[in-house]
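User: Could you write out the 3D structure of this protein bound to glutamine? I've included everything you need below.
Assistant: Certainly. Input first, then the structure.
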Amino acid sequence: MKSVISSLSRLLSSREISSAELTDKYISAIESRNPELNAYVHTTFEEAKKNSAAADKMLKEGGASPLCGIPMTLKDNIATDGLPTTCCSKILQGFKPYYDATVWRKLKACGAVLLGKTNMDEFAMGSTSETSVYGAPSNPRNLQRVTGGSSGGGAAAVCANLAAYALGSDTGGSIRQPAAFCGVVGFKPTYGAVSRYGLIAYGSSLDQIGPITNSVTDAAVVYDAIRGEDEKDMTSCPTEKGKTILTPDVKGLKIGLADEFFDGLDTEIKSAVENAVKKYEKAGAQVMRISIPALKLALPVYYIIACAEASSNLGRYDGIRYGYRAQSYSSVDDMVVKTRTQGFGKEVQKRIMLGTYVLSSGYFDAYYKKACIIRESLRAQLKSAFGTCDVLIAPTAPNTAFVKGYTGGNAIEMYLSDVCTVPVNIGGLPAISLPCGKDKNGLPIGMQIIGDVFEDGKVLSAAYFAEEEKLCELEEVQGGVSL
Ligand code: GLN
């Protein structure tokens, strides 16, 4: 794995290249490769030029952040003042927020350079990025395949070197699964470790912002820059002081392998993950087989809770406050109905209906309340697993990148692909996905390292071992900015 941020930071601070020159390189690479990849849905090159000029000044003064002057991208659901933020939905066409998300405000203060906003499933609902109103991005490792979702554009941009790093959001796997499909690193921090202020809400009790990078080292640098308590997000918490120190020493690390993550798993994926675990064992880690029975119920619990929260969060798109409004209507009610019918895509409409149903008075006890009870028992079982294990290792997804169009007629298959990632969001846990092998078609396989709440540093260090050991080195995709 290549530490792009560290290498660029070295070049910038030694003044071998200026941020303005580096930004121009990224802009030309995006202009040439984005038409086939569709990773970016809005480019912000004017903003990038302004940011890079400011960064060059900061670099000259010295003492700048390691992210100063480095070109990057944000998912299209992270608010950027005066710049398009549309959640890849027709209903937010033309919407430009008048404030910055906290993560972007922090990165901007570090001297980050914003190249644009990246493609995603509409309102972050999906696992392939194909529900985007702008059409799906392509997987840079195989253009016939999906990038995964919902932060697919960000994963594609990082994989193709069209950005040094990306920020995505993860409600049920949307950072980790596209990272796995594209063969890059995706880190979902502990719930509350990173402010959600300015992240357009999907499932508020599950949503989390995190980095997509080319290496674990890079993920830690970005995480350090965006984390911490924020008075604008009441669910945010203080995090450890100082920078995250990565230690590749796994001697005595207790790794739990929960049977439920491996039952019925595709053999290629199973053996890639197990081979990686053997390397940890050889280096002195202690591996234990455990069982977390409630993992089997995580998927239905997730889809009930996420849809319930989405049905409430998406109530605000009524044609009055934001973006799109239907052209002709006979009354206010008619306008709202027509706006929402025309503005939301099919997957979003389905989830709003499902969410409204499980919250309705007749079905609340049978579905929503039951899901909340099971959520608590899963959280308790995860807690007790971390009583004996330091981290859990699991596959990121039960499959590698789908052929484009495959899940269009098979929504259940798409939901099933989230089976290994959603328990992490239900537990509010930190987890990282990194490549651990390839399947018979040469597509990357992702492995997940999961930790207890606020043990983000431990998760990153455990992943750093794989990076140091060169556990899986994938070839570099050509056509982007190469160092
Ligand atoms: N694939 C999951 C879903 O469709 C997760 C999405 C996400 O993490 N935003 O809900």
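The radius of gyration is 21 Å.
User: Perfect, thank you.
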